[in-house]
Amino acid sequence: MRRQTGGPQQVGLLAAAIGVLLLVCGLRPAAAGTEAIYARYKDAVLQVRIVDRASGEKSSIGSGFLVGDGMVVTNYHVVADLISKPERYRIDYLHADGHRGDLTLYDIDVVHDLALLRGAPSTARPLQLAATLPIQGERLFSFGNPHDLGLTIVEGTFNGLRENSLYEKIHFTGSINPGMSGGPALNRQGEVVGVNVSTAGNQISFLVPVRYVSALLRRQNSGVAQTGASGPFHERMRTDLLANQARYLAPLLAAPFAQEEIAGFSLPVKLGPFFKCWGDSRHEEDEFYEQVTQSCSTSDDIYLADDQFTGTIRFRHDVYSDLRLGSLRFYGLLEREFNASGLDPGGEEESVGTFACSTDFVTQHDDLYKVVYCLRGYKKMAGLYDVFLTVASLRQDQRGLQSSLILSGVSADNARQFSQHFLEAIRWNPKP
Amino acid sequence: MESETIATVDPAPIRHGYIEILGRSGRVRYRVPLDARELPLHLGRGLGNDVILDDPYVCPVHAQLRVVDGALRVEDLESVNGIRRGAGQPRQAVLLLASGESVRIGHTMLRYRTLDAPVAPTVRDHAVISPLQRYERPGLVAGLVLASFALQLGQTWYATVEETDGIKVLLDPLAGAAVLALWSGGWAFVSRLLLQRWNFWSHVGIACSALLGFFSATALLEYFCFAFNLDVWQAELQQLLAVVGTGLLLYAHLRFTSAAAPRRLARLVAAFGVATLVLLTLVEQGEKDEFHASPAYQPTLKAPGFRFVRAHRPDEFFARTAMLTRQLQEENSAAPQEDESVRP
Predict the structure, then answer these.
(1) Mutate to test the interface with B, among A234, A361, A384 (most CBs of B within 10 A)
(2) Interface check A355 vs B, CB under 8 A
(3) What are the tens digits of pLDDT across the range B36-68?
(4) CB A356 to CB B313 under 8 A?
(5) Distances from the Cα of A167 to the Cαs of A209, A218, B151, B271, in angstroms?
(6) Does ipTM top 0.85?
(7) CB A407, CB A322: distance < 8 Å
(8) Which of B89, B35, B107, B91 is nearest to B66 (CA)?
(9) pLDDT score at A344
(10) What does DSSP assign to residue A42?
(11) Interface residue of B321, B325, B338 to substitute, partner A, most A CBs within 10 Å
């Protein structure tokens, strides 16, 4: 007679297999919930405070996170006041458990709005930086201190990199609020994928991609960073801004500007994918003149101070057609409009000088123009300039063009080249 | 035989001189002749006196006047406040006045003048003299007023680039006319005070001339700056024009207001003009150091036919703008130079 080996033994094997399977599943990291993410990584996030030395109280706050070796990452705009007025402010941190301590500014990346501080508590475990971007739709968790309400976690979604932007940013669908700037955005594995930087309201927020944090840390490790007084930080800003403007202007200057037809003129309009343009026109019955307007600008900028943004290109074209003004009044209208370009360069006395201007008649393609070219320097960053260019056509056929251009934070050579490209792309080109 | 009575004519009355009743400013209000046959004269507040003074500090019968050896004898008739040589002087019972001397009766000063008393030299009438005398011609002034109104109407029309009510078009010229009238009225008031003549329409004519002159000069200057690409100097030239124009305006008004010599007026106005220019220059220097976020430029834009200077190619224009960079670098010469390594 043969012995049966199935039955209870098979069940046991099956149970064991199931048990092993369950054990293995249990050992794999489970999809961490918000509570777990918060509990696991909150100790690595700090409130960064800019403290007024005279009163001893914070004048502004942001957030930051530990990245090891006592280093804290935050936004440049959180510490900008310290750089401009080091004698007036100092930095310290407040931990969620109530501990406080001093921090010192170590390095900055003004183009990507990052800053590196030193002096973090060594007891807390630093965060790891992600090596790759998340996938579209992946859940992210942003940490920060909104409105000084204490450490907060906000859930959101990764929606890819912001399209057609001059400065790369992650589009994060979550509510980042003031005070959370400089805080980390983590994936489920607790890795930093971005740094909170700005919000457009309505759960539209932006993060600085983590690769720029990595680059800043690599630079720090290579010994490039400066320490001490704020003077060297302006030199760092200067070199970074000069490099940045060279980067985005070089491809634009490599070829003549593309043109579009607007009311009989060929004009430079959308110069690159990172320009956004809007149009408007004035044309109603019984009007004395027609006006067609097109304005374009780069969709992003670099924060230097509350009163100063840089790294932008803005321009507008206004084409006027006389209907029943007559030559005398039409030129009176053009002259008044010429004196009010519609573009405001902004700026404060602490940051920039006064514009110096040159005016002359320019002729090209058998057309005559009156051109005003103005330049002003950055007081603390020599070699950087803001440009204001305005061009008015001088025609006999009751048609007038006024174009204005503002470049901010460019070198003198690039200012001249870009302005010349811009002017040379303007042409009277009526359809037959 | 009846003798005929031949009427005899008394010889001409002997006039010793005059009593001058003076006002508070020392000007003569009226004169009383001192004829020998009328003397002595009684003076007081009462209506029965020969010389009536409407002064509450004068008694109804206050003093008696005689001429003694060419001097005026003033005798106090036991009045309340007496007679004195001047305010604060002790009262006298009798005063003898030589020609040119005064006596205070109550609060009224009286001066004795003999017939041979010297008078001030004749003043030449400078207030109205050609070519400014033309402003006394009604036709010219009327023409200037009409031209000024038409100018302001034209300026409103020039600036109008959309449909508007006829009334709104007239508002600015009417306001301008009101301002002109007020301005001229002020000068006319001063003329009345100093020359006892209003000269209102002359002042209106001068103000209208100034308005037309300012407009013409400014327009010419704008076209000149456009033609020769002198926009950078336009503000300074306009300022100079304004100071010179204002000086001429003030001079013309003063000629119809004051009897002072023309040269004196010219020197006064010139000094005022120089002081104004110096002040404006100092203010401008101060403003140059002020920060302006927007570029300060004032380009003129006219029809291309008014251009006289050569137009440049774009590369020529931008090559010349290198001087702006040098200028800014000199202003910021303490800062480090541009980083060569980051040029494109």
Answers:
(1) A361
(2) yes
(3) 888 899 999 999 999 999 999 999 999 999 999
(4) no
(5) 10, 20, 56, 62
(6) no
(7) no
(8) B35
(9) 79
(10) G
(11) B321
